[in-house]
Amino acid sequence: MNQSTVMRNDYGSVNKRLRDIRTPEGVVLKVELASLWDRCAAVLLDLLVMSLIIVGVGALFFFSSFITSAPGSALALGLLLFFLLRGFYFLIFELRWRGVTPGKKVLGLRVMNRSGGPLKSDAVFARNLMREIELFIPITVLISVKLSGTEGLSQIFALIWLGLFAILPFCNKDRMRAGDMVGGTWVVRIPESKLLADVAESVDPGHGAFKDVHPKDSPRTKITFTDAQLDVYGIYELQTLENVLRVDGPTVDITQKEVCTHIQKKIGWPEGGAPVEPKTFLESFYAALRARLEARMLLGERKENKFDQSRPSVDKL
Question: Which residues lie closer than 8 Å to 284 by C-beta, 6 or more apart?
Answer without folding.
Answer: 218, 220, 221, 223, 225
